[in-house]
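Collaborator request, handled under Task 6.
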Amino acid sequence: MQFFDLGLQELPFFADLQPAEVEVFIKNTGAVVKRYSKGLRVLKAYEPNAQIGILAEGEALVLAEDRFGNESVSHELMRGSIFGGTSAILPRFTNHTSVEALTDVLVLWVPYRSLLVSGPKLGKIHGIVMKNLLEAFCLKGVYMMQKIELLSQKTLRERLILYLLQRGKRQGEAHVRVPGRVQLAKELECNRSALTREVNQMKAEGLLECGAGWMRLLKKDVE
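Structure tokens returned to the collaborator:
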């Protein structure tokens, strides 16, 4: 597989790098691209991991999993998302999250150890990548705080409104791309039937517009 065909230089992890510099980075760190089919676990909870994953193509879902096999949806991963960093950087702590492919995906795996020691060979490329990685980790922290804020809302309507506002800001669109009702209910940690009733009620009140794979808040005062 030719790395330049994947447009890796367009990913946030490689921001400010040229395609040739991305090739140099991959060669010197031993990074590899792997393909996973829809439904497969890209990363498994409670298993050791020494690599940082960058989603090069497709969509995936982060799932929090306890020892009894109970799962809850954490957040969605899109092209350019970074995952696996915590288990790679802090192997002494148990990894409680899995990553499941929502579509067929391509993942660029970067060995964390190689990333650390490749500085002398990579020069400025290494500094740029590390800056991008730190920014990604900080952004992950922001998303975690948003998740806490979301689940702290007292009513399902408040959760749904905040969910759409958060995703709309990330996507930069009024028509917010949303998952199917089953997954959406998991992300909001509510009953699917209750979610469907609330969506229908908000539509009837002129607060919400829905289409295939999207929702849009209609009234400014909702915000």
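The cover message to the collaborator said: "The two ends are 46 Å apart (CA to CA). The chain has a mean pLDDT of 91. Please let us know whether this matches your experimental observations."
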